[in-house]
Amino acid sequence: MTAALANPERSWYRLVVLAGHEEAAAVVVAAARAARRGSGAAISLLDHSGFAAILPRHAVHQGLALEVEPLPELDLEDVLRIGPASGRCIIVVLDQLSDPQNIRRSAAFSGQHSARLRWLSRRTGATGYGSARQSGLGRGGRVCRCTRRQSCPRARSLKEAGFWICGLDETAPLSLAQTDIGERVAIVLGSEGGGMRRLVRERCDFRACLPTRPAQPTLNVSNAAAVALYELTRGRDE
Fold it and tell me: Is the pLDDT of residue 80 over 80?
């Protein structure tokens, strides 16, 4: 929530506050860089029942809830256009993941250390898209959608923009750290059940694994994403 208010690309309407958290609300609103819309009160104070009524069931909060204008969804070409001309640039490609929420958080965390991080979700019926968008609202890039029909031209767009496409694959002979994939990389993560689909795998320039032990050769996809993003961003300045 504080990250969303600190993002000058965002717009917000009001900050809803649970009674007892007024001081914290005043601090974050005073520091806001996001533009405010609407003419009503910037801060709305509610009791427990009123606060619970505006949130989804089992929502995790700290007594504050921000009503914001969603960021516009970007196409891959938009992401490539606003990306840096030089330096490490990472695009995360998700192939048919049903719930990308934790990967979104990893991307947001890595994005705090690398402003050049963007992510792309190839989504076919995913149920966690809304919660993924909610995680790490302020930083870590934008979420883009692709359709199945667009897989070929989008791979071509990445390569034309100077990106090497690297798929995470537990059967790959080299680890990610051992693979020279350059400064502009699209890292591809497949679903936990079936991994990358065959056609997606064939469009990768490289396949790389993570350094796991024989007793535990695989990680769940969100943990794999976190390890891969750490490996790609560690030791680099903003």
Answer: no
pTM, rounded to two decimals:
0.64
DSSP string for 88-123:
-EEEEEEES-S--HHHHHHHHHHHHH-TTEEEEEE-
Pick from 221, 223, 187: which is nearest to 91 by CA? Answer: 187
| Residue found under tokens 């891969």 | 228
227 and 234 Cβ atoms separated by less than 8 Å: no
User: Which residue, chain included where needed, has tokens 């769940």?
Assistant: 220
Is residue 112 predicted with pLDDT exceeding 70?
no
- pLDDT tens-digit readout, 32-70: 988 999 888 899 999 989 988 888 877 778 888 889 887
Q: Let me know: does 212 contact 218? Beta carbons within 8 Å.
A: yes
**Token pair recorded at residue 160:** 């034309």
In sequence order, the 6+-apart residues with CB closer than 8 A to the CB of 163 are: 89, 91, 184, 185, 186
151: closest CA among 94, 209, 74?
A: 94
